[in-house]
Amino acid sequence: MGETTGVSPLDVLLERLSALHPKRIDLSLGRMERLLAALGNPEARLPPVVHIAGTNGKGSTLAYMRAALEAGGKRVHAYTSPHLVRFNERIRLAGQLVSDAALMDALERTLRTNDDAEITFFEVTTAAAFLLFSEHPADVMLLEVGLGGRLDATNVVAAPIASVITPISIDHVEFLGETVEAIAGEKAGIIKPHVPVIVGEQPDAALAVIERAAARRRAPLYARGQHWHVQAEAGRLVYSDEDGLLDLPRPRLMGPHQIDNAGLAVATLRAVPALRVPQAAIEAGIRGAEWPARLQRLPTGALVELAPADVEVWLDGGHNASGGRALAHALAELEERYSRPLVLICGMLANKDCAGFLAPFGGLAREVVCVPVPAEHAGMAPADLATVATALGFSASVATGVGAALSALSTYPVTPPPRVLICGSLYLAGAVLAENGTLPV
To answer: Looking at the structure, do residues 179 and 326 belong to the same domain, yes or no?
Structure first.
């Protein structure tokens, strides 16, 4: 798929939707419920829904489930956010990204129905997505929370077949609270009465909050370490629960944290009878799942060609402290297998815990090159990010962009050529994929 140029009619319409509310984020269910009622409640006509919340790993867990279900012959809708390059990435109808024409039609119908009432961009686009999902047949719908859970626009689905909660950590404190307990309370807001809740590895404090919420709603709980287990063993993924043990391939997606995400996907497929697929389908899903900008190797492309020959370029959208720990662990594994000097090219939003993200790379990365995040987002000034990196003991510098940072590696006096990780923001990752010409499909 080639990169498009210019501003499309879809881009113009999406920009118009952005002007319907003065805030980008305003967590509430009232506006969403009003609009959906006016649209005829499409959220009540969806295929069986698996609702997924959490801080880290939502997209990867969803990708494993989708790949396994599709390998088992199921038609799967998927709703994710944010997108990396094109908005269409958020809506997958029975396995295919929504076309511009279908998306435009749904957005225009939703906009007319909304009649210029105040509503956030995520709410109005989620309503349009529900309209599309309700009009196209599928066997399962995988629904990712946008932010939090309790007041997220996706939490209007009254009776999902499963609620899934991936690992919880500190992030988005201005919306969800400053403690793990408070954030877990928001995430646990997706738990519905009598609907099974499948839970990934959690801090004890977060798990306690989830357990209480599940008990109040009489929702069967399937928690990692209690009801199911997963671990890497001899290059394989070994999963076990009360129904037995599965010896599975190691995930295609890189990093030890992907063992956890794949395990949570398997636990969900096995906990809900409607999601059961043969073991061969689970194996195919774990082996074949793809999720862009999650430790994605970029072997070629317009940006990569700016780097000196044999420089190894990786991309990840991780942007919080727990994401930094997972990434550092994964890069340490790579270092053990094939040693190269590690250089971080990093850009972050101003509201993120930059020190918390970078600190785990101490002793692993030689240098942090700080770059701006695309201008429409509230990025931290590269010089300020460099100050944070320097205070942590890194050698830090500033570049005007990722291309300039890669080009500057020609003067980097090391052998072998370095391993580069571009990281710190999903918005930065999306811009890199677009500029490199490696668009998600």
So the answer is: no
Instruction: Find the distance separating the first CA and the last CA of the chain, reported in whole Å.
Output: 8
- pTM equals 0.93
**Would you say how long the chain is, in residues?**
441
Residue 63: enclosing H or E segment and its boundaries?
Answer: helix 58-71
Is residue 114 within 8 Å of residue 23, measured between CB atoms? no
Judge whether 1 lies within some domain.
no
Are 154 and 36 within one domain? Answer: yes
Is residue 3 in some structural domain? no
Closest-CA residue to 242 (of 270, 213, 200): 270
| Residue numbers of the domain that contains 202 | 9-288
**pLDDT tens, N- to C-terminus, the chain (441 residues):** 334 446 899 999 999 998 899 888 888 899 999 999 999 999 999 999 999 999 999 999 999 999 999 999 999 999 999 999 999 999 999 999 999 999 999 999 999 999 989 999 999 999 999 999 999 999 999 999 999 999 999 999 999 999 999 999 877 777 788 899 999 999 999 999 999 999 999 999 999 999 999 999 999 999 999 999 999 999 999 999 999 999 999 998 988 899 999 999 999 999 999 999 999 999 999 999 999 999 999 999 999 999 999 999 999 998 888 889 999 999 999 999 999 999 999 999 998 899 999 999 999 998 999 999 987 677 899 999 999 999 999 999 999 999 999 999 988 777 789 999 999 999 999 999 999 999 988
- For residues 339 and 280, what is the distance between their CA atoms, to the nearest angstrom? 35
Note whether 180 and 170 are within 8 A (CB).
yes
Final residue of a domain: which of 261, 288, 315? 288
Is 4 part of a structural domain of the chain? Answer: no
- Judge contact between 228 and 260, C-beta under 8 A: no
Please count the structural domains in the chain: 2
Which DSSP state fits 45? G
